[in-house]
């Protein structure tokens, strides 16, 4: 709370100079920055003053499309007719002028007439090229990923949905960053309630900076303390286009190579977009594998710890000798052994993630093979547990959405501790806790565990399994879409093969 | 505001756990001695000697058996005494086999079973067996590179699965012990020159060993015991030269009890479908097969009836004929049944069908 | 979170199936066999059927009452008996529901004590459970329903493990039918109904059901599923154990699991007990929710405080009751109140409500 109060005070201080709306003051303020260039230019009838931030504009546009035409300028008001650029405006308001200058406009004004200022857009976009998706890479299918430019990103989406109904609402969020945030939805499909929730939450945000879309996920999701993300982030424009068609709402943020999708469900986090590129049988199998991998990854180490600490009766007689032999030389209790190994894996992951790819690989090999083998030989960990932990870690990496993968790795630790304290019962209690938590979560007000709870049979066909496209005639109930049918199933059946 | 208390709860929970006062005793797998087999023997009027075997898994994957012996009047107390001798606490959760000395079994094993039934950590799959000889000696030997308990349990399990003996375990024993109209049986094993041999099947009256049947009668016992069976093997000698061995593909047993709880005759109908495994008297023609079937039927009928006679004489009912009668009469009276049981005429009808004779004629 | 029953808080009618089933299937399933087989023996399956049908009849009566009033029991009793008497009877209901929660939790803890951890600190353990219940109940009725739904669906795999004992079962034990007198069988029905108790929470969550009239068939089906579960386990028990053997098993269902052997796991009863946590949790949550809602309706209190008070009572009673006799006494009291309320009071209330409405209508007609 205190932090917020301080910020408000700061805001007031900031606003004070703005109240003085004299243009001279603005100019003075701007020229304090060395980067702001200002010079005069004598046109045929008057003396013009031109100013801009050097770093923000494209000098080529300035010299090619603006300067040559200024000579002809009679009065400043005819500026939009003279300069061959789309965005040329006349402004009086100093705040807007300041804002536009900071977005790469060039200010042109008559030294003798400070009532009207001309603004011409000459901004330069310095972004990287559209590249191959890295986080959500797929072997088949489109290979475009979002970049840091909002306009490029919107272009990538709109290209896939040439619809006048695709509405894009733009907001500016952040006291300092004034980040452009776009809300995308398809009019007539998306539920107005969802759209309004998103826009309302976004516009009510009190924050100074938005540097990435993940800021927004954390700020506008329903339960901000939950380790589970409640909005999917994706770098694939095709995924955004596809879910817009389902009636979801997407959020794109300028400067962020990831878009956000909501409302979403728990199970959607385990569907990779690649699933739609594969035959439905294969895709369903992969989804099930992924989901079991998650369960496995959460439960396997805790169950090992619980069984070895308290429930030796559960071990079948043929497995006894393997387990006992592997543990016989180890001085640590199972929980310590497991924690040490789990933490080692986390360390390896962290080290690998912070280092360049090549070095990261080396670290992985060194860590995985050398440390693993060495610790078994040194008698610090049992080889059975090493296999279990490695498999569990492997399984946790199968989650297609990176944010969810992190969550899965995190929630293993409370499970582990509980398993140590009350054995299998601890695992069961943690599991109950997890279930209740998931039941309490919602995504933009929609239930998070849908389609299992509340049970919606119709939505089950694109959850843990994916049925063929021809069966998916209706949009999911989750989004409460205005137009529920994707296409006419009767017409789809009519098709005649020649 | 709603989120604050939840967060507090989370912290509170964590605190609770970190204080670690759940007060549960950990039994880490490698810090306990898993008794896998136990042998009981009465050494005098009311003192029991208990021999416990536990495996000592060596780092080079070999297993060394270690035994502890102690005696007391209660078997649980013996276990505490055993723990006095052991470096790690002794637990009975992985008990595979319990052995009873023959004299002990004749005295009745009910009291010794009670501890197994009462202890939640002992499973129902524990095998029970009677030892002809001293269980202490039997358990003291090393049989292959294996834990003795697991060795014994594998031995019994293998014989059950291959159809040589009937299904038996702790649950089955107590089922038959408590059920009205059926008496338990247990395998009898003996140790000879470091080898273990399934010698006979011990027949119990309630919990006391009273009789036993030899290996050659297993076949008759098995086909009469189960409503449906398979996997039995049997060999007979007909006349001077003809020897043959058959393998049972399926056997069906049905009771025909026209007037239950009276002295009227009870008929056991057995239907067998078999194949010939070995035959040493020339060619097998259809007529020959018919003859063999006849001979077999005769043999099974004669031996089974003889066996049932033997049971009736001893007033035991391992086949569960009483149970068959019980499920056919309302308000069954156990005493009355026990009274009439020895005098009922019980006959066996066998239909044998040899459906296959291997890949040669 | 505890608001009026607006549309968002309401649940689909078919979920009543899971709620009814979740609240009925609880700790009773683990050890009901001994009690009913004591007098009905191998004819107990008839007892299960008869008890199930009687409960179904009571559910029908409840719906008759609720459909007429479209309110929960607290309001109905206020309408019929006036503010003071009505609230007093509502308090009895609330105590009864709370008792269901206590008995379930205490019995579960006892099982954990006997089967798994004899020295477990029950203060700590029940505290953990109560925190779970608080987390669930404070999420509102939707979360409680959700947990009931998952509490029925997820542990359902357990019932497949009861197929393992079939290998050793003697199903001839079921014969002869009608081995016991009708008197014996009727006598057992009373004991069996305890296994079905808890369905009366319906009286409290009725206003939370969307199109409540449609939910009636689901309630009956939920009860039917409970009956099928009981029947299934009972038949396997009769086949697997001999009668005298059952009479020695306090938790025959758990003993059934002792025989289960799979390549990766043996001794399934430990997994059964563990999984049962998920079965009893909705049970406790629902009863706590019902009593909280009741108190809140009577006294117009803030829900959060009520939950905390109710949970404190739950905690205190749970840890105060020690030893098998006390637990048995508590269970007996609970089932007695349950029987009286469910099988005597509910029909009576339905009758009174019916007569009153007739009388009022008569008066109305006379007046005009």
TrEMBL record, chain A:
The keyword Membrane applies. GO terms for cellular component: plasma membrane. It is a multi-pass membrane protein. One of its GO terms (biological process) is spore germination. The keyword Membrane applies. Its main location: membrane. Signal peptide: none annotated. Keywords: Membrane, Transmembrane, Transmembrane helix. The chain crosses the membrane at residues 288-312, 384-403, 415-439. It holds the Pfam family GerA. It is found in: Cell membrane; Membrane. This is Spore gernimation protein GerA. It comes from Cytobacillus solani.
UniProtKB/TrEMBL annotation, chain B:
InterPro entries: GerAC_N, Spore_GerAC-like, Spore_GerAC-like_C, Spore_GerAC_C_sf. Residues 201-358 form the Spore germination GerAC-like C-terminal domain. Residues 27-190 form the Spore germination protein N-terminal domain. Signal peptide: none annotated. It is a lipid-anchor. It is found in: Membrane. One of its GO terms (cellular component) is membrane. The keyword Iron-sulfur does not apply. Keywords: Germination, Lipoprotein, Membrane, Palmitate, Signal. GO terms for biological process: spore germination. The keyword Membrane applies. Gene3D superfamilies: Nutrient germinant receptor protein C, domain 3 (3.30.300.210). NCBIfam families: spore_ger_x_C. Belongs to the GerABKC lipoprotein family. This is Uncharacterized protein. It comes from Cytobacillus solani. The lineage of its organism: Bacteria, Bacillati, Bacillota, Bacilli, Bacillales.
From TrEMBL, chain C:
Its main location: membrane. It comes from the Bacteria. It is found in: Membrane. The keyword Manganese does not apply. GO terms for cellular component: membrane. Keywords: Germination, Membrane, Transmembrane, Transmembrane helix, Transport. The chain crosses the membrane at residues 12-32, 44-66, 87-109, 115-137, 144-165, 185-206, 218-241, 270-290, 306-323, 335-356. It is a multi-pass membrane protein. GO terms for biological process: spore germination. NCBIfam families: 2A0309. Belongs to the amino acid-polyamine-organocation (APC) superfamily. Spore germination protein (SGP) (TC 2.A.3.9) family. This is Spore gernimation protein GerB. It comes from Cytobacillus solani.
């Amino acid at each position: 709370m205190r932090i917020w109060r301080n910020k408000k005070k700061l805001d007031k201080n900031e606003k004070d100079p703005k109240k003085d709306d004299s243009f001279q003051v603005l100019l003075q303020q701007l020229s304090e920055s060395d980067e702001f260039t200002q010079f005069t230019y004598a046109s045929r009838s008057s003396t013009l003053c031109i100013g801009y931030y050097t770093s923000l504009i494209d000098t080529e546009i300035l010299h090619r499309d603006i300067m040559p035409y200024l000579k002809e300028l009679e009065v400043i008001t005819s500026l939009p007719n003279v300069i061959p650029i789309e965005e040329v405006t006349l402004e009086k308001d100093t705040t807007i002028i300041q804002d536009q200058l900071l977005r790469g406009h060039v200010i042109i004004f008559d030294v003798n007439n400070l009532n009207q200022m001309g603004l011409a857009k000459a901004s330069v976009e310095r972004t990287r090229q559209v590249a191959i998706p890295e986080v959500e890479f797929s072997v088949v299918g489109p290979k475009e990923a979002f970049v840091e430019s909002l306009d490029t990103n919107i272009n990538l989406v709109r290209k896939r949905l040439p619809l006048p109904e695709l509405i894009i609402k733009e907001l500016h969020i952040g006291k300092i960053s004034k980040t452009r945030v776009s809300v995308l939805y398809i009019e007539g499909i998306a539920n107005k309630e969802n759209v309004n929730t998103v826009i309302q939450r976004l516009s009510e945000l009190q924050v100074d900076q938005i540097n990435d879309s993940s800021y927004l996920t954390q700020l506008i999701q329903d339960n901000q303390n939950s380790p589970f993300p409640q909005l999917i982030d994706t770098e694939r424009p095709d995924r955004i286009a596809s879910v817009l068609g389902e009636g979801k709402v997407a959020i794109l943020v300028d400067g962020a190579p990831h878009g956000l999708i909501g409302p979403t469900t728990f199970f959607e986090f385990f569907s990779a977009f690649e699933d739609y590129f594969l035959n439905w049988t294969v895709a369903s199998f992969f989804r099930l594998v992924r989901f079991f991998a998650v369960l496995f990854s959460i439960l396997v180490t805790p169950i090992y710890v619980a069984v070895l600490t308290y429930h030796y009766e559960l071990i079948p007689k043929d497995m006894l000798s393997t387990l006992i032999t592997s543990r016989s030389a180890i001085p640590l209790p199972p929980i310590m052994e497991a924690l040490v190994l789990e933490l080692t894996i986390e360390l390896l992951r962290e080290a690998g993630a912070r280092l360049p790819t090549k070095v990261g690989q080396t670290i992985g090999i060194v860590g995985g093979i050398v440390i693993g083998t060495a610790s078994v030989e040194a008698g610090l960990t049992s080889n059975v547990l090493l296999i279990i932990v490695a498999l569990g870690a492997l399984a946790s990496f199968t989650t297609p959405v990176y944010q969810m993968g992190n969550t899965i790795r995190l929630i293993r630790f409370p499970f582990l501790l509980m398993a140590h304290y009350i054995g299998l019962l601890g695992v069961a209690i943690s599991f109950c806790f997890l279930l209740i938590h998931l039941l309490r979560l919602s995504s933009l007000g929609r239930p998070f565990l849908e389609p299992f709870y509340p049970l919606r049979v119709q939505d089950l066909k694109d959850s843990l399994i994916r049925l063929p496209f021809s069966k998916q005639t209706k949009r999911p109930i989750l989004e409460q879409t205005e137009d529920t049918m994707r296409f006419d199933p009767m017409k789809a059946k009519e098709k005649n093969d020649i | 505001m709603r989120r604050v208390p939840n967060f507090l709860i989370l912290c509170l929970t964590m605190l609770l756990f970190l204080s670690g006062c759940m007060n549960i005793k950990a039994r880490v797998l490698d810090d306990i001695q898993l008794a896998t087999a136990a042998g009981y023997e009465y050494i005098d009027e009311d003192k029991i000697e208990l021999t416990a075997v536990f495996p000592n898994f060596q780092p080079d994957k070999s297993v060394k058996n270690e035994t502890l012996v102690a005696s007391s009047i209660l078997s649980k107390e013996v276990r505490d005494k055993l723990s006095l001798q052991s470096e790690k606490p002794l637990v009975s959760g992985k008990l595979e086999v319990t052995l009873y000395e023959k004299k002990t079994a004749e005295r009745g094993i009910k009291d010794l079973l009670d501890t197994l039934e009462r202890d939640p950590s002992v499973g129902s799959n524990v095998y029970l067996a009677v030892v002809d000889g001293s269980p202490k000696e039997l358990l003291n030997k090393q049989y292959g590179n294996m834990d003795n308990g697991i060795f014994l349990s594998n031995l019994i399990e293998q014989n059950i699965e291959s159809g040589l003996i009937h299904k038996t375990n702790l649950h089955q024993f107590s089922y038959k012990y408590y059920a009205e109209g059926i008496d338990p049986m247990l395998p009898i094993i003996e140790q000879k020159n470091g080898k273990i041999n399934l010698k006979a099947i011990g027949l119990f009256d309630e919990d006391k060993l009273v009789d036993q049947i030899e290996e050659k009668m297993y076949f008759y016992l098995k086909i009469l015991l189960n409503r449906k069976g398979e996997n039995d093997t049997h060999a007979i000698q007909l006349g001077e030269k003809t020897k043959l061995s058959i393998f049972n593909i399926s056997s069906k047993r049905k009771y025909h009890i026209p007037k239950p709880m009276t002295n009227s005759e009870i008929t056991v109908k057995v239907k067998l479908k078999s194949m010939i495994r070995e035959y040493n008297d020339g060619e097998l023609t259809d007529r020959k097969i018919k003859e063999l079937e006849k001979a077999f039927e005769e043999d099974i009928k004669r031996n089974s009836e003889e066996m049932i006679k033997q049971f009736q004489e001893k007033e035991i009912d391992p086949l569960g004929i009483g149970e068959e009668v019980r499920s056919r009469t309302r308000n069954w009276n156990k005493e009355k049944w026990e009274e009439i049981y020895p005098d009922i005429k019980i006959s066996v009808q066998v239909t044998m069908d040899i459906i296959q004779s291997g890949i040669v004629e | 979170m505890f608001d009026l029953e607006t549309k968002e808080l309401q649940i689909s009618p078919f979920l009543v199936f899971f709620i009814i089933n979740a609240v009925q299937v609880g700790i009773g399933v683990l050890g009901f066999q001994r009690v009913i087989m004591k007098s009905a023996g191998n004819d107990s399956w008839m007892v299960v059927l008869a008890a199930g049908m009687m409960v179904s009849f009571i559910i029908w009566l409840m719906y008759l009452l609720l459909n007429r009033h479209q309110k929960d029991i607290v309001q109905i009793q206020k309408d019929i008996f006036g503010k003071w008497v009505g609230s007093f009877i509502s308090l009895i209901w609330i105590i009864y529901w709370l008792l269901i929660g206590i008995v379930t939790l205490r019995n579960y803890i006892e099982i954990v004590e006997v089967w798994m951890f004899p020295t477990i600190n029950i203060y700590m353990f029940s505290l953990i459970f109560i925190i779970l219940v608080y987390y669930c109940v404070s999420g509102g009725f939707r979360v409680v329903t959700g947990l009931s739904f998952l509490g029925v669906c997820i542990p359902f795999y357990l019932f497949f493990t009861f197929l393992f004992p079939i290998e050793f079962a003697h199903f001839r034990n079921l014969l002869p039918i009608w081995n016991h007198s009708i008197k014996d069988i009727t006598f057992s029905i009373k004991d069996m109904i305890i296994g079905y108790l808890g369905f009366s929470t319906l009286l409290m969550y009725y206003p939370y059901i969307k199109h409540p009239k449609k939910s009636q068939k689901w309630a009956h089906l939920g009860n039917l599923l409970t009956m099928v579960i009981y029947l299934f386990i009972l038949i396997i028990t009769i086949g697997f154990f001999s009668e005298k053997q059952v009479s020695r098993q306090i938790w025959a269902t758990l003993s059934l699991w002792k025989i289960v052997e799979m390549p990766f796991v043996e001794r399934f009863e430990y997994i059964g007990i563990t999984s049962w946590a998920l079965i009893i949790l909705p049970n406790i949550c629902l009863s706590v929710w019902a009593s909280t809602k009741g108190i809140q309706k009577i006294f117009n209190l803030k829900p959060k405080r009520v939950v905390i008070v109710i949970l404190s009572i739950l905690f205190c009673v749970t840890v105060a009751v020690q030893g098998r006799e006390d637990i048995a006494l508590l269970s007996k009291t609970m089932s007695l109140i349950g029987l009286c309320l469910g099988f005597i009071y509910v029909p009576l209330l339905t009758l009174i409500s019916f007569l009153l409405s007739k009388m009022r209508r008569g008066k109305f007609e006379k007046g005009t």
